[in-house]
């Protein structure tokens, strides 16, 4: 019995946390609101759905405990996958992923396709061809690093 508990503790420590059904619905609601408020309106904006497949990608990424985007040059398995990455020095909440995204909307200048400051997460959130999103979070004690990652397809 002790061995089973130890194995379970290791598994929980290594992998990240994924959203509950209510949290994933809230994440999707926040993202949908951001995507609906794109100006000018996008005529080709696809409907976004929460995806266990993308959640698994996000969980794999947070398990590395790295404060960096998993770009496909270093991780070829993520070709055509986009990410929102939020870090902190505390145990993160999923909602933190979209607080900054909402703030970044005013930094993006559509006509010139440029950002006045950092709006990478906003651009990913409103990427018109994305149809699936999934998120995971983890607090890495040894690095005092909280991470929330949301993964998007067709990026």
From TrEMBL:
Q: What region holds the SCP domain? A: 22-154
Annotated signal sequence is: 1-16
The entry's protein name is SCP domain-containing protein
Q: Which UniProt keywords apply?
A: Signal
The reply to whether RNA-binding figures as a keyword in the UniProt entry is no
Q: Show the SUPFAM superfamilies listed in the entry.
A: PR-1-like
InterPro entries from the UniProt entry: CAP_dom (IPR014044), CAP_sf (IPR035940)
Residue spans making up a coiled coil are none
């Amino acid at each position: 019995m002790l061995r089973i508990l130890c194995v379970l503790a290791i598994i929980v420590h290594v992998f990240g946390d994924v959203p509950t059904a209510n949290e994933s619905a809230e994440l999707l609601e926040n993202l949908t609101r951001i995507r609906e408020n794109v100006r000018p309106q996008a005529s080709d904006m696809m409907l976004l759905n929460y995806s266990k497949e993308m959640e698994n990608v996000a969980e794999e990424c947070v398990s590395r405990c790295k404060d960096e985007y998993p770009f496909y040059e270093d991780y070829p398995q993520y070709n055509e996958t986009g990410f929102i990455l939020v870090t902190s020095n505390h145990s993160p909440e999923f909602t933190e992923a979209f607080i900054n995204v909402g703030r970044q909307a005013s930094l993006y200048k559509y006509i010139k396709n440029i950002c006045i400051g950092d709006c990478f997460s906003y651009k990913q959130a409103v990427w018109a061809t994305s149809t699936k999103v999934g998120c995971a979070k983890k607090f890495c004690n040894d690095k005092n690093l909280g991470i929330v990652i949301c993964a998007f397809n067709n990026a």
